């Protein structure tokens, strides 16, 4: 499946702001197929583990607190060239720098509350998908 899947989370800010449907609409309109999806909430321990790659960065504590602050929608998406195409669809981390029409430009509150997560590599897409879903949950 490498190269054909990516992982995303609709973050607590976008869930709280009622943007789940609009974001999922943008994702499917862009040609992605949803292979797995669930509404869930990360515990602090889950968020620490998921983002442990950033543990030495100054924003790590805030990131963990934010990502465990409310429900998220976790999803595995499928499309040819999935990671790169999804990164284009979501836009720059800073919504002020994101291109018009991207998910972050439309729905993010700030750099820290930027509406969605998207895998940054094929390898991380597989790791992140398996963090949230058992193999039998991905269709």
Automatic annotation (TrEMBL):
Main location per the UniProt record: cytoplasm
Source organism superkingdom: Bacteria
Cofactor dependency: Mg(2+)
GO MF annotation, one: metal ion binding
Catalytically driven reaction(s): a 2'-deoxyribonucleoside 5'-diphosphate + ATP = a 2'-deoxyribonucleoside 5'-triphosphate + ADP; a ribonucleoside 5'-diphosphate + ATP = a ribonucleoside 5'-triphosphate + ADP
Keywords attached to this entry: ATP-binding, Cytoplasm, Kinase, Magnesium, Metal-binding, Nucleotide metabolism, Nucleotide-binding, Phosphoprotein, Transferase
EC numbers on record: 2.7.4.6
Gene3D superfamilies listed in its UniProt record: Nucleoside diphosphate kinase-like domain
Function statement: Major role in the synthesis of nucleoside triphosphates other than ATP. The ATP gamma phosphate is transferred to the NDP beta phosphate via a ping-pong mechanism, using a phosphorylated active-site intermediate.
Protein name listed in UniProt: Nucleoside diphosphate kinase
């Amino acid at each position: 499946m490498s190269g054909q899947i990516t992982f995303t989370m609709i973050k607590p800010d976008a869930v709280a702001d009622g943007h789940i449907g609009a974001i999922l609409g943008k994702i499917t309109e862009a040609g992605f197929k949803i292979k797995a999806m669930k509404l869930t909430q990360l515990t602090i321990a889950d968020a620490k583990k998921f983002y442990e790659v950033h543990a030495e960065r100054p924003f790590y504590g805030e990131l963990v607190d934010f990502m465990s602050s409310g429900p998220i929608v976790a999803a595995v998406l499928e499309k040819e060239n999935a990671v790169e195409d999804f990164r284009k669809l979501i836009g720059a981390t800073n919504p002020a720098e994101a291109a018009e029409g991207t998910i972050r430009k439309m729905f993010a509150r700030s750099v820290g509350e930027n509406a969605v997560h998207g895998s940054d590599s094929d390898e991380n897409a597989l790791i992140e998908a398996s963090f949230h879903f058992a193999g039998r949950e991905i269709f």
